[in-house]
Description:
about 400 residues; alpha+beta; five-stranded antiparallel sheet; 9 strands
Amino acid sequence: MLKKIKVEDLVLGMYFCGFEAAWLDHPFWKNKFLLKNDAELQQAHASGIAYCWIDISKGLDVAADEDEEAAAVPDSPSAAAPADASEPPPVPAIDATLLDAVALRETAKKATKAMFSEARMGRVLDMERCVSVVEEIAGSVLESPNGILSVLRLKLADEYTYLHSVAVCALMVALGRTLGLDEKSCREAGLGGFLHDVGKAFIPHELLNKPGKLTDEEFTLIKKHPELGYKYLSQDPNVPEYARDVCLHHHEKIDGNGYPDALRSGSITLYARMAAICDVYDALTSDRPYKRAWDPAEAISTMAGWTGHFDRAMFLAFVKTLGIYPVGSIVKLESGRSGFVVRQNAQDLTRPVLKVFRYNDDMQVSDTEILDLLATPEADTIVARGGEEWARLSHLDSMQLLSTGAPPVTSA
C-alpha cells in the first residue's frame, strides 16, 4: 500500500517509491528500493523536495504522530487511491512539455508509416498530412527543442525506419535555427528531412534490416533509394522541389565521393547539406538489427574526423545545436565517477548538466546526484567520453527514458 509522506519523515527501513517531483530534480537513479544506508537517507533529506511515496506493505510505516500529519497532506493516495494501488500517480513527475513531445512522437510515427505504405502501394503522397506533421514538429522544436529531440532519441530497432524520418525532420529544424534560418526556412528544411528516406519504401524490408554484412549487390540496391524516392516524389506536383532535392542528394559528400551524382560542395543545396549531417547522426545513435547505437558524444567525435564528408561550418553549427556531449552521452569525471548528460549549458558546451553516479559492490548504480558543471566548476570536470561505459549502460534504457521524464517506449 502506497503512502505519501514528508521527505523529512523518511527513515531507514522504509520502502521508497519515488519523490513527488520530476526525475531530473531528485538524486536517485531508481524509483523503488528499500532504504538501508545512511548515505541514501541523507541524499533524500538534502534533496529539497517536500514529499515522497513509500510502500508500507514492503517496509516501515511512519510513526503514529507523523502518520496523522501525513493523513492531512492534500492528495494523499491513502484517501483517494485503492489499497492495492501499485504505482504513484505519474502526472506530477512528468513535465507537460515532455508529455506533448511523446504524443507528437506517436502521431508522427503513424503519419510516417502511412507515408511509406502509400508509397509501396503506388498511391499519391498525402502532402497535407505530411505538412501538418512537420508543422507540429517544427513548432515543438522552435518552442522547446530539448523535449522532442530527447524523446526522439528513444526508438527501438524495429521503429527505426519510421522514427528516423521524424528525428531527421526535428534535427533539421533545430539545425536551421542554429544557422539563423527564418521559421519558414526551418519548416522547409524539416519537410525535406521528413521525406528524405521515402525511397526506402521500395527496398525489401528484409534487406533494410539484414543483421549481417551486405553483399556488394545488396549495397548497390540500397544505394538506389535516393533515386527511387525522388522518382516517386516527382510524380506529385504538390511536393516542393527543395524536398525532392533533399531526398535525392542527402548522401552526397562535400568532396564529391557521395551518391547518386557525386556532387561537390557548391553544387549541393543548403538543405541537402543539412540532411547529410542529421541523417548520419541519427543513424549512428540508433539501434539497428546489425549494430547497437553509438554513444552520442562518440558519434559527434567520429563525425568530426571524417574529412570531406560534411560542410565543416554547418557541422560546427550542428555541434552547437546538440552540444559536444549531447543529451544521453556518458562521460568520465576527474573524481572517478561517471555522468549521464541530461541538459546542455549553452554558455559552455564542455560543461553540461549531469546525473553523476558510481557503482556499488553489487555493480548497481549508486551515489547519484544532479551536477551542473557550469554552476559548480570546482566540483568536478569531464576528462573523457564514456565510450565503453556507455556501451555497458546502454541496456539500461530506463535511465535514458527517465532522463527525459518520458514514459517507457513500447513497440507498436
